[in-house]
């Protein structure tokens, strides 16, 4: 029996989506780390990108390649601020995923692919949000804000997101309230390269424990120094416990969390002018930002 003409396009779409999954599945892996199951993908031969949040803090890591072969893996590096982690494993001839820096527009179709016991896990949805670069709550620089409207299984976190052309534009992770967020390919390429070489991503460090306070004079927000690392940049610059930070390079402190998120990789080695109130007097201290231990 021949399908009605108006159903043929749906059959073509179905076949196309199935083809996209089949073409990408060989690059997808399932990850098992200390009672946590998630997904990942081949970034380079022997290197697997996964979601840092889905990687246990301890225990062995096992990777199941497409087809069911299991291999042990070692953590090569992880960056909680961008939710990117890198594993090393013997992947033999498994193909690496081809990532695209293209950012799909709102309303575009999106297909996600994860792994489970050597088989693919797929879901279909729409791009709900497609916006500019942003910083995560932990200070990571994310190249684009992409959220998907679809149901993602827990085991599929760390898998790939594809557009309707089959281009892999990023890795799927869970955000607040289990929203599905995509870490874009551009961010993965930048962070994974640093993890491959250094095992970490450098972050700025002040060596100061800060507590937000209200400034008496104008009602603005400052930060009181509650503790000072004796070997940290703050101590070397002459910052004392009890000092109140009023401004950073001439700008009001505002939220302490915003200040701390500004301590990204590019901040290491920079010198900033801190306006500090001490004993009723205001002074300026130049502080060179260090690298977080």
Automatic annotation (TrEMBL):
Report any Pfam family annotated for this entry: Trypsin_2
SUPFAM superfamilies (alphabetical)? PDZ domain-like, Trypsin-like serine proteases
What does the UniProt keyword field contain? Hydrolase, Protease
Output the Gene Ontology terms for molecular function: peptidase activity
List all membrane-crossing ranges.
none
Q: Which residues form a coiled coil?
A: none
InterPro entries xref list: Chloro_Bact_Ser_Proteases, PDZ, PDZ_sf, Peptidase_S1_PA, Peptidase_S1C
Residue limits of the PDZ domain? Answer: 204-280
GO biological processes? proteolysis
- Protein's UniProt name: Serine protease
Taxonomic placement: Bacteria, Pseudomonadati, Pseudomonadota, Alphaproteobacteria, Hyphomicrobiales
